[in-house]
Amino acid sequence: MSGVLSRMRQFQRRDLLRVGGPGLLGLTLPRWLHADDQPATGLRARAKSVIFLFQWGGPSHVDTFDMKLQAPVGYRSLFSPIASSVPGLPVCEHLPETAKVLHHFAQIRTVHHTMNNHNSAGYTALTGYEPPIDDQRLRESLDLFPGYGSVVAATAPGSSDLPAAVAFPYQISDGSTTPGQRASFLGKQHDPLFFQDDPNDPGFRLSQLSLPAGVSLDRLGSRRGLQQLINSQSRQLDQSAAATGLDAYYRRSLELLNSDRVRQAFDVSGEPEVLREAYGRTTYGQSCLLARRLVEHGVKFVTVYFAPSIGGRSKTDGGWDTHGFDNTRMYEILPARHLPLTDQTLPTLIRDLSERGLLDETLVVWMGEFGRTPKINDSISRDHWPKCYTVLMAGGGIRGGAVYGSSDRYGGVPDRDPVSIGDLAATMYYALGIDHTREVHDNLNRPLPLARGRAVTEIFG
Predict the structure, then answer these.
(1) DSSP code at position 206
(2) Which residues, listed in sequence order, are joined to residue 42 by a DSSP beta bridge?
(3) Is 113 exposed, middle or buried (0-12, 13-18, 19+ CB in 10 A)?
(4) Pairing of strands 384-385, 301-305
(5) CA-CA distance, 154 to 164, in Å (whole number)?
(6) Is there a cis peptide before residue 169, judged by omega within 30 degrees of 0?
(7) How far apart are CA 34 and CA 37, in angstroms?
């Protein structure tokens, strides 16, 4: 600890005050050490990396993978089922390519929590913890739990010069920025490397790996040059999270700027054109391709956000929140945008990982913040429903074709083997060989386990 403190003394008092004050940094430091100093448990890691595909807005489980074919009219999907590569497991007719790779996936059909608003449900799904209240105005706070990538970065950091966690190409929000996307009380040094550059842009390059005008790498050896770099990029890198862990944060920025391996990992232009077309020339498609490159190079947790907003009326952008707006209805929007985009990109990612021998060591998670009501509303759409929904997992030791849990005949509540959001978090940590009972200390110095729940080990081979 004395070494850490001596490095912190390199910064003058006015610099610490500018970002939150010495009291804030002093209070946070012991909590980093609680996370890092606990002994390893010896759990076997089934996966080296996670690709977390977050479907912001909430996909309808009963219109995709948990189709209730025997439900009455008014509940049953207006989409037809088609056979998949798993006998007896049909999927939506608008997912024909996904149907061909369903044997790689396990489905958890009873995920549930109690948050009905997007921001609070989003935070819950991104951290494994429910906030104290279900409030759409929920904002980032040191009182809230860190996101999965930050937990992985803090408790199981990688050995390469790449960051342990990367998140892109959007910062998601619904009115205000959705909490759970950063490291919170774990400190800024465990924030994911976040960027909003579009991997589908012909001139794509990571802005965080670009120097400000007038600053050279040689100048970054000095404190003045490094501060100039961080100040110029502070809005991109961290607009609202508390500025803790500054020393490690500065060092990481310098390491990234000086790493040829990092630049190579982010260079999607080196991929064959035929593969880029297979993923789809969309922001989401190329983001999933980039995710594959990053885990291939050693990044441990990659988060790809489907869209920056929850969605609504549009057939060309936005997330999965399509429950009855004007005369544009869910059953028109989904087959025009969300389902074709998913059906091109998700199967291609699975095939690409498999062909490269990476699927066994990469856990792919596909999920939203909640599902959709079993009953179709008067606008011929479905509303928010956190009481029961489906999450897909593939690779990373997962037993392909497995189905865990069963919802009732309407898809409304778990009928058998319910899975809490804490259980789901524990399952991801289990795949990475991380003991989910391991404790970190929050902003009030309270000990908290990484996840409250139990790992769903039944879906692993």
Answers:
(1) -
(2) none
(3) buried
(4) unpaired
(5) 9
(6) yes
(7) 6
Name which of 280, 458, 297, 441 is nearest 362 in CA terms. 297
The domains located in the chain, with CATH, are 34-205+259-459 (3.40.720.10)
* Tokens standing for residue 107: 């489905």
Quick one: DSSP state of residue 284?
H
Please tell me which residue, 312 or 159, carries the higher pLDDT value: 312
Q: Which of 309, 297, 304, 306 is nearest to 195 (CA)?
A: 304
| pLDDT for the residue numbered 231 | 55
Helices 246-257, 223-237: axis angle to 10 degrees equals: 90
pLDDT of 113? 98
Distance CA 382, CA 412 (A): 12
Cα 422 to Cα 338: distance, rounded to the nearest angstrom: 27
pLDDT at position 229, please?
A: 54
Query: For residue 126, how many other CB atoms are within 10 A of its CB?
Result: 29
- Over residues 374-394, the pLDDT tens digits come to 999 988 999 999 999 999 999
Q: Dihedral angle at the C-alpha atoms of 140, 144, 150, 152, nearest 10 degrees?
A: -160
CA 442 centroid distance within chain: 21
Lookup: tokens for 128: 């494994």
pLDDT digits (tens, 9 = 90+) for 102-140: 999 999 999 999 999 999 999 999 999 999 999 999 999
Which candidate, 177, 153, 183, 167, places its Cα nearest to that of 28? 183
pLDDT tens figures, 188-240: 999 999 999 999 999 998 876 665 555 555 555 554 455 555 555 554 544 44
What are the backbone angles phi and psi of residue 165, rounded to the nearest 5°? -135, 140
Give CB contacts under 8 A, 24+ apart, made by 10-15: 10/223, 10/247, 11/223, 11/246, 11/247, 15/227
In which residue are the tokens 């996936």 written?
Answer: 105
Mean pLDDT of the chain: 86
Provide the pairing of β-strand 81-82 with 439-441.
unpaired
What distance in Å separates the CA atoms of residue 83 and residue 99, rounded to the nearest whole number? Answer: 7
Question: Are 242 and 20 a contacting pair, CB within 8 Å?
Answer: yes
Give this prediction's pTM.
Answer: 0.86
Geometric angle at alpha carbon 403, from 287 and 392, rounded to 5°? 10
Beta bridge pairs of residue 441: 447
SS3 content of the chain, % helix, strand, coil (to 5): 35, 15, 50
- Residue 118 to residue 131: CA distance in whole angstroms: 12
Q: Is the backbone of residue 58 left (phi > 0), alpha (psi -120 to 50) or beta?
A: left
Q: Phi, psi (5° rounding) for residue 82?
A: -130, 155
Do the Cβ atoms of 132 and 167 come closer than 8 Å?
no
How many angstroms separate the CA atoms of 208 and 226, rounded? 13
